[in-house]
Every structure is written in structure tokens, then in C-alpha cells.
Specification:
- This protein is of the alpha/beta class and 209 residues long.
- Helix content is 44%, strand content 13%.
- The protein has a five-stranded parallel beta sheet with strand order 5-4-3-6-7. It has a two-stranded antiparallel sheet with strand order 1-2.
Length: 209
């Protein structure tokens, strides 16, 4: 068992490995009260313990990565509602780091060509990342879901209760790519809370309210 601050630092280094524009210390300062001196002291300890590589940028070792359980979940998140919040909270409870894949508009339209999308993927990502259960939100890669999974390398892939993918389908495709991950299906205490239903009931004038 490692201390919460140590886990937060490992999380920051992991997230920075997904986005070269992120600096671990700046990421932490937005979430903790850590000072630069304390950060450097902790990094030295983690290098000595074999959890972090002494490199630029900092990288987790195999041991350091093994201390974290990373959960991946995806969705469109065009209109965020209570069902989303409960799902993300549940997903976060399954591990240490919650990475959310925000679907590209082109991908969402491939799944449902009649879907009306109100926000582009960059705004949707910003919206999702503002939710406190989310450690980092990433826009899905061009190609398939599995290109993004291969990039993130999660320990767990969490599916929302109403997502069309099946656990078996994802497990088989991950196995074909040599991705070792566990697939789980989340429940929701608000099964009637769906974006499509909200759009249907409020119509496309939703933002005129």
C-alpha cells in the first residue's frame, strides 16, 4: 500500500506519458497543494525505490506502473447528465486512475448517422475532464476503439450499462492485439437517464432554455 501523495505523483507521471504537453508537477498543482521541493524529494525517493526512471520526461518503471490500476471508459458525452456522473463515479471506484475516451464526432456518426451532435470533440473532452472523478480525458484515435486501448493499456475496460459493445467482443479483439485487460459492465442507479431520451423530450432547442 502506497501513500495517497505517492499515488497522485505516479498518476501524474502516467497521465503525462499520454500527453507530452502535460508536466507532472503542473498536473499535480491543479489537484493538490504539493510544492516543487516536495515533488522533487518524492521523485528522488521513487527513483531510489525503483518506481520511476531518472529520465526526461519522467517515466514509470514496470514496478511503478504495477502500483496503479487504470480504468478506461468511453462515450460521446454530448449532453452530460446524472447517468453519466454515476457511471463515471462507478468506473473510478474500480481502480486508481480513470481515463475517459471521448468519441470523435466522425466515430459517433458512424455508429448512428442520425445522431445530432451539439458539441465538437474538443468541447466534449473539456466538459468531461472537468468532472472530478476523471483523471484524464482523451479524444479517441482515428481507426478503431482498439487503437486507443492499445495506447492507454488499461487494466480494466468499463462498459456503460447501455453501450452496444459486448464484453466478449472487446475481450476477443483485445486478445488478438495482445492486450491483457479485464472487461466489466457497469450498472446505473438511473437506468432511464439517457442522452437520446433527453434530446427527444427537450428537442433541438435544448440550449434555448
Amino acid at each position: 500500500m502506497i501513500e495517497p501523495l505517492d499515488k497522485a505523483i505516479l498518476t501524474a507521471i502516467y497521465v503525462a506519458s499520454l500527453d507530452s504537453d502535460i508536466l507532472p508537477l503542473e498536473y499535480l498543482k491543479n489537484r493538490t497543494t504539493i510544492s516543487e521541493d516536495m515533488f522533487n524529494l518524492k521523485i528522488d525517493e521513487m527513483i531510489e525505490n525503483g518506481f520511476v526512471e531518472r529520465s526526461n520526461p519522467l517515466r514509470l518503471t514496470f514496478l511503478g506502473r504495477g502500483l496503479l490500476k487504470i480504468v478506461l471508459i468511453g462515450g460521446v458525452f454530448d449532453i452530460v447528465h446524472p447517468g453519466h456522473i454515476h457511471t463515471l463515479k462507478d468506473a473510478k471506484s474500480q481502480g486508481d486512475i480513470l481515463i475517459v475516451v471521448v468519441a470523435r464526432s466522425s466515430t459517433a456518426l458512424k455508429i448512428n448517422k442520425n445522431r445530432k451532435i451539439y458539441h465538437d470533440e474538443f468541447l466534449r473532452r473539456e466538459l468531461v475532464e472537468s468532472i472530478r472523478y476523471v483523471d484524464y480525458a482523451i479524444i479517441g484515435r482515428e481507426g478503431t476503439l482498439y487503437d486507443t486501448v492499445e495506447f492507454v493499456k488499461p487494466d480494466i475496460i468499463a462498459l456503460g450499462y447501455d453501450q452496444i459493445h459486448t464484453e466478449r467482443e472487446i475481450a476477443v479483439n483485445c486478445s488478438k492485439r495482445g492486450i491483457n485487460t479485464r472487461i466489466i459492465r457497469l450498472n446505473t442507479p438511473i437506468p432511464g437517464s439517457k442522452s437520446a431520451q433527453i434530446k427527444e423530450e427537450l428537442g433541438h432547442s435544448i440550449y434555448d432554455i
